[in-house]
Amino acid sequence: MELDNKIVGQLFTHLHRYFAECLTLTRQTMSECELCKSAHVIHPLLCQYCYDDLPLFSYQHFGFNLLNWPAIDKLFPQRSFEQLLCLAPYIAPFDQWLIDFKYQKRFELADLLGYLLAELWQKQVNKQQDVAILSVPIHLKKWQQRGFNQAHLIARAFNRRTKIPYLRQALRRTTYSKSQVGQSGKLRRKLLKNAFALSEEVDTLPSHIILLDDVITTGSTVNTLCKLLKLKGVKHITVLTVALTLPK
C-alpha cells in the first residue's frame, strides 16, 4: 500500500511539472502586450515600450519612500508605518487593470502587478534581511462570495519573484462589513475598530513587515493593521501597494 501511494505521489508530481511546462510554453507563444498588443514582451502582458510609458511614481528624490514627498506625507498624518511604496496614482492603466482583476476575474493581471511591484522593490539599495510579506485580509464570508482575495493573489505573485517569505495566514479579518468605497476616513476607522486579528498560530513576526494591498484610498485599513503589528513587536513596516488614490 505504501508503494502504491509512493507511485501515485510521483505520478502527480510528474503531471504537475508537465502541465506547468505546458502552461509556460503556452504563455510564451501566446504572449502579447496588454496595452499595445506587441509580441515583444518583457512580461507575458507587457512590452518594454509600454513599461517605459507607465505613469509610475518617481523615487529619484524621495529615497524610496513616498512619505518623504510632502504632499503624500500630509495624507497620512497619524500613521503607524515607516515606508510607503506604490507603483502609480489610481489612473490609467492601473485603475482599469484593478477593476478588470477584481470584477472581471482577470487573474492573469495578478502576476503582472506582482511583477511590477517586485521590479520596484528590487530597485531599493538597502533591503533588510529579517523581512516577511503580509497581505490585507478580507472576511471569510466576502472571500466565499467573491471567490478570491486580490491582495493575496498579488502578494503570492510578488513572493514568487522576490522569494521573500509570505505569511499568508498570519492576519485575519474578524468582522464583516460591506464595501467601503465612497466612505469617509472617519467612518472607515470606526468600521475597522477591532476588525482584524493575528492568527493564533503566529508566535513571533520578523522585525520588518511588507504589508501589501491593491489600492490605498484613505490608508485607514493598512494603518489599523500596522497598529496591530506594532503591538506584536514589529519595528519597521513597509506598506506596498499597486495604486494610490490622490485627492482631487
Automatic annotation (TrEMBL):
Q: Which InterPro entries match?
A: ComF/GntX_DNA_util-trans, PRTase-like, PRTase_dom
The family line of this record is:
Belongs to the ComF/GntX family.
The protein's name is ComF family protein
